[in-house]
Amino acid sequence: MTDVILETRNLTKEFRGFTAVSDVNLSVERGHIHALIGPNGAGKTTCFNLLTKFLVPTSGQILFNGTDITAARPAQIARMGIIRSFQISAVFPHLTVLQNVRIGLQRELGTSFHFWQSERSLSRLDDRAMQLLAEVDLTEFADTITVDMPYGRKRALEIATTLAMEPELMLLDEPTQGMGHEDVHRVTELIKKVSAGRTILMVEHNMGVVSGICDKISVLQRGAMLAEGSYAEVSRNPQVMEAYMGTTSAELEGAH
Fold it and tell me: Which of 31, 34, 115, 152 counts the highest number of beta carbons within 10 A?
């Protein structure tokens, strides 16, 4: 019996007659890196917004560790351990890298978002913050003002601040979007590294990113589940090829 951490049952979201997510049954296994992929407009981000409660489903259910969380609010599911890292870099640009991670750690002190906390109370968190920076290869940037960091490093910082909140399930929204090749490679390796002992669900449109790191891939097209399986299974699926390339597998074969 597989250990399922997150499950959706017939998850559906309609906007004024347009169905953005249609009857999606998703099953994320504990300890896996699971990717939700699909061409632009496939419903990936809408699906994520449903899972993190930024949108209310039209119908269907969401279960986390077997508990129905369909009606839960965003703050409630964050407390349960579902933590989302945003598509747009969600860090404080004028704080240092270390200070950003400390803010994520403040939740544990029960002083979340009390920015006026004394330095002394926050310095207790420095050791843990430095451990997290080491985990994402940012130790040498601890005292750098975040706005001065290259884009790929900012995304690494964002992963560190997400980790600071002790996620049981980490949701990564387009973690490599807008990156050059070198940054994409670095962040992909980073995701693989921090996934040890954790569960990650990521929205991604780049097949190359998910190919080397994901245990399971779910492909959405026009809001519906098109295919699911390992990268090898999904990438050989003629419907997936067509959705991505606009060609049939026979044409792809002929192109080689």
Answer: 34
